[in-house]
Amino acid sequence: MADEFAKKVSxxxxxxxxxxxxxxxxxRFDGSLLVIxxxxxxxxxxxxxxTRHEFNIKLEKPKSYGQANQNFTxxxxxxxxxxxxxxxxxxxKNDDDHKHSxxxxxxYWSILVxxxxxVGMLLMLYYFFDYMIYVIYVIFCLGAASxxxxxxxxxxxxxxxxxxxxxxxxxPFNKKLNLQPAKAILCLISISICILWFIFRHKEWSWTLQxxxxxxxxxxxxxxxxxxxxxxxxxxxxxxxxxxxxxxxxTPTFTKGTSIMEAVAFGGKDATSSSGSQDWSNLQFxxxxxxxxxxxxxxxIIPHINYERRLCSYYYDFSFSLLGLGDILVPxxxxxxxxxxxxxxxxxxxxxxxxxxxxxxxxxxxLAFIGLLFMNxxxxxxxxxxxxxxxxxxxxxxxxxxxxxFWSGEPINTLISQAEIHMITSGQQTDxxxxxx
Length: 437
Hints:
Elements: H1 2-13, E1 20-21, H2 31-59, H3 61-78, H4 84-102, H5 108-127, H6 129-156, E2 169-171, E3 175-177, H7 181-199, H8 207-222, H9 230-250, H10 260-265, E4 283-284, E5 299-303, H11 307-311, E6 320-324, H12 326-345, H13 352-375, H14 382-399, H15 403-408, H16 410-436
Antiparallel strand pairs: 1-4, 2-3, 5-6
Helix pairs in contact: 2-8, 2-12, 2-13, 3-4, 3-16, 4-16, 5-6, 6-7, 6-8, 9-12, 9-14, 12-13, 12-14, 12-16, 13-14
């Protein structure tokens, strides 16, 4: 097979035309799928660890709250006024802020609104791609720039030498400026990456910048995903499981044979894509021309590694493998809940639920790629990921005899309540110390 293909390559390079490639000549597997598999798995792990880091920081908020309450009390003592009602309102406000910053409470109506929004955006991109794509570009660039900056700040805050600040500058109107050179440079880098990608997005090498932006955006979004009940996680996974199946397998019956989801990924309703079985006998050699079409940027994209794919006519315009960020963000809900639940029940050294979810994600994504290779058509990754994550999570909970509390998230709510009690207690102690002073 390799000799036959090499012979055709030599003939093509010598100027021969109308050379065709059979299915036996062209390997179904491409190493780019393996690269995406590794990148996506590492992103889901990093997102989970970052989520637990943020959760732990939020649990320590009572310290900053107590200091703020002390300043608030001192200011009002100076004015010799009765501030008990003001302090009570301030405590209630901080209680609510603290609770919502730790976890996200999502109801049935919120899930319905989310689904309607996602479907609406997908349909608008399908029918008005040439206009909506620029809206997506703006959102993508702004989100990516802030995400790259936020991830960079994690690095800067980890090294004392990078925390250096310039002397405070006095500005007009009693304003002061505290400038940290490392973060100022980081801000410029973050913005520059996004601008460079937008300007050179049609260049073949632009996939490197796009991946940096997309992975930063995904990791940053995952760090905020902290749902309080696995019941909510289950509903969302089931909803998007059905959504993915409908958009990939059902919508081709209403369109020109291309699923709405894949058409959007390749440029809207008029774009061609790889859904459905291909006529391998019509694949021909040729020179791939520059790709000037606008494509949806919220994907991980890796060039095909197998050289024969890059020579065949079907892959002229888009010789890449890709994975949508939704296939990271939606499963990330389960992975993040697992690591927070492990934290709440004291499984810090061996976070079994988190480990099981990561293994489930790795296996699920691998099965999606295997399905892609054998069925020769685009696969909805959530078709494999959602059931496996749910099955693995519930099996772990059943074997650990923690099904009820895992479903309800009771340990997480208890941990938050304890943090809130500590917040109130620390605030009261600070008030007493201030009064005695």
